[in-house]
Amino acid sequence: MIFTIILIGFFSFSITASATDSTIPEWVKNNAKWWSEGSISESDYVTSLEYLILNGIINVPIPITEVAATQTALSDDERAQSFVVNFSDGLIEKPISIDTFVAFEATSSRDDSSGLIYSPIYKFEDDAEFMLESLPSMDKQDMYRGIDRWMSKISILTPFDVSIDVVSGDARIIQTWEYRDCKPTAYGTYLQDVTNFYQFSGKEAPEIRERIVFSCTGVHLAVPSSDD
Question: What is the pTM of this model?
Answer without folding.
Answer: 0.67
